[in-house]
Amino acid sequence: MARPQGITDEEVLAAARAVLLHKGVSATVEEVAERCHVGVATIFRRFPSKQALFSAAMDVSNDAEWGRFLARLVEGGGRGDARASLIELAHTMLDAARKMVPLFLMKMSNPSLLDKQSGATRALSILKSLADYFALEIEAGRMIEADPRVAARVWLGAIRHIVIFETLGPTVDELSTDAFIEGLADMFCPPPAKKRKK
Question: Pick from 125, 170, 181, 194: CA 20 to 30 A from residue 47's CA?
Answer without folding.
Answer: 125
